[in-house]
Amino acid sequence: MAVLPPDPVFSLRCPDMGAVNSICFHESERLLAGTLKGRVFLWDLQTNRSSLNFEVGNAPITNLHHTKEHLITQEKGGTITMYSISSNSYVKERSIPGNHLGYCRTALHINPNNTNEQLLFYPCEETAIGVLHVTDPAAPTQMLIPDDPQLAKLGSVTCFKPFECASQLFLLAGYESGHFLTWDLSSGVMIDVMELAPEALTVDYDPNTNRGIVGGASDKLTTFSYQRQSMQLQRGSELCIKNPGVNCVRIRSDQKVFASAGWDGRIRIFSWKSLRPLAVLTQHKQGGVMDLAYSTQPVSMWRAPIMAAAGMDAQISLWDLYN
Q1: Quick check: is 3 in a domain?
Q2: Residue 5: inside a domain, yes or no?
Q3: Which domain holds residue 81?
Q4: In the chain, how many H helices and how many E strands?
Q5: 100-112: b or e for each residue (b if 16 or more CB lie within 10 Å)?
Q6: Using CA atoms, how far apart are residues 106 and 93, in angstroms rounded to an integer?
Q7: pTM of the predicted protein model
Q8: 187: number of Cβ within 10 Å
Q9: What total number of domains does the chain contain?
Q10: pLDDT tens digits for 201-223?
Q11: Tell me: the pLDDT tens digits for 66-107?
């Protein structure tokens, strides 16, 4: 039985912001929001005020990433734009025209042993996935294209998750057909395929516990793991949720909890160890919750790591949960 949830520590609202598709933290004291109107809002979490906003384009922003030196935006249609930080503002560096009509979000992998090695994975036309070197504009873009004639018709890519295992980098990618492909990125070779979850929209995986979670248009969350020697996917259990539709799943880095963001506006918190439901957060009452993000360090205002959630109701809720 899910217990009564706490209230958020704060809700960020701004009349000009409108619906929010994507959020990301920058060094725990700043939060960025990408909106349906195609603008980025920068929130200062020491004052809880928006200190800057600017237009990226006319299309909705579907995803954001922030590294130490760059902001990366993804727009509906697939266009990727990279900005550098300059004198309390953002300067556009380069843009990659998109050709993706689906809803797959970009993913960023930063090598923990070399923070200059940053790879951005982005959806391309049909089944293709592009791999962009963020810090090296001269490096060629790698393309991952599933061209095995024995593969079922996959449809467009819908979600993916890069991860490291035994010092090797892999990419798990889900497709419209419900198939999930695993790529060995050192060779660019597809090493596994499995029909895991139909209509998948979001995936997360934790290599330390060797378990992942998939959400999508159904009323179920599906867990999975890898057989480590062969790197073959193994289906786990299914978790039923009350109403169908999940936009985002996120495993917290301490592996204590994971959260799902629902079409019904509910944020569901689960124990990562037992998969037991812990709380259902109901702060967002109009429209779905589109994205979730965790701060990597405690936010000084609340002296605790914070989870942020944002969606179609034009607010960003901040939570101090199970820390």
Answers
A1: no
A2: no
A3: 10-319
A4: 0, 28
A5: bebebbbbbbbee
A6: 18
A7: 0.95
A8: 9
A9: 1
A10: 999 999 999 999 999 999 999 99
A11: 999 999 999 999 999 999 998 788 999 999 998 898 899 999
